[in-house]
Amino acid sequence: xxxKIVIKVSMNNNKSRAKALKIAVGVPGVESVGLIGEGKxxxxxxxxxxxxxxxxxxxxxxxxxxxxxxxxxxxxxQDSAARPHSPAVGWDPxxxxxxxxxxxxxxxxxxxxx
Length: 114
Hints:
The protein is of the alpha+beta class. It has a domain at 2-75: Alpha-Beta Plaits. The chain has helices at 14-25, 52-63, 75-82; strands at residues 2-9, 30-36, 42-48, 66-73. It has a 4-stranded antiparallel sheet with strand order 2-3-1-4, with helices on one face. Helix 1 packs antiparallel against helix 2 (52-63). The radius of gyration is 32 Å and the shape is elongated.
């Protein structure tokens, strides 16, 4: 079951944002990380088997302020699982044609004048 976690972190510049993203990606089970919200101060982490408390503690060690906003299931996974997959349509490639050159052995072009 995939989780979607939103954490508010005090990130003032691009360097701190990159550092926060690097920390989040290092946690086992994380599949994607993105910045959301006004001012890009919230991180959205999606993955399977993520410990949200451990991730928040790791961010607090580096940034001193990290607030766990929400933890829930990823709704995109449920939508894709509900739709049945259509079978793949494919055609066989056209057959290869083999060209053969037939030469007449009785004709000798080397002897033109006799």
